[in-house]
Design goal:
Order of helices and strands: EEHHHEHEEEHEHEEEE
Structural class: alpha/beta
Helix content: 10-25%
Shape: globular
């Protein structure tokens, strides 16, 4: 049975999953990249970006690979697509990822402003959804078939799906970093009341990897 999953999601020791002041130069906000240092050294990351090298088979690479396995569709918030706010000025912005994004499946992007789908290279189509998280999830499940749907972020999007009780499992990488300010993942979210508990815990030099599932 397909699931709705969050995977490969970094969290700082003080609970932040994004920094402040997202911009073209800081896609995850200022200092936001620090919570993904566990990911950047892995073979999985290097392969995604067409590069050789990277660590293979260690704890970080195992979780990095799992964070990409068995997904038939993604859901992203608009801020994950780019730094533009308000009505689309034109169709020139096509995401952070270039002409061949690393998804290779349909990606549903939450927005308040209509826009035609973008067909990219490598099997990725970016589809803009104005009807909220329930509509996006229905479309993503249909597109994914028997595979899972990944809620890819940002923080607000994951939080909305959690609050609505629509997520089955999460993989969080807790990193030894204090961001000090930014977007907290669990603001106004009671994970215990939602039925989540930690079902797996593994450690690396860079992070503590936690799997949380509804039990």
């Amino acid at each position: 049975m397909s699931k709705v999953r969050v995977a490969g999601f970094g969290v700082s020791l003080d609970g932040f999953s994004a920094g402040i002041e997202q911009s073209l130069h800081d896609p995850i906000g200022k200092r936001g990249m620090e919570i993904f240092q566990w990911f950047f050294h892995t073979k999985t990351y290097c392969t995604m970006h067409g590069r050789l090298g990277g660590t293979t088979g260690d704890v970080d690479d195992q979780f990095a690979e799992r964070a990409r396995e068995n997904f038939g569709a993604y859901i992203l918030g608009r801020n994950m697509f780019g730094p533009i706010r308000g009505p689309w000025p034109d169709d020139s912005w096509k995401g952070w990822w270039g002409v061949n994004p690393p998804f290779h499946v349909p990606v549903f992007i939450l927005t308040h402003h209509e826009r035609e789908p973008l067909v990219m290279e490598g099997g990725t189509t970016l589809i803009f959804v104005t009807g909220g998280i329930e509509e996006a999830l229905a479309l993503a499940k249909k597109a994914a078939g028997e595979k899972d749907v990944k809620i890819g972020g940002g923080v607000s999007t994951v939080r909305q799906f959690l609050q609505a009780g629509l997520i089955d499992s999460l993989h969080l990488a807790s990193v030894p970093v204090f961001l000090g300010q930014g977007e907290r993942l669990f603001d106004e979210v009671d994970m215990r009341a939602l039925g989540f508990s930690v079902t797996e815990r593994k450690f690396s030099e860079y992070a503590t990897h936690l799997t949380l599932e509804k039990v």
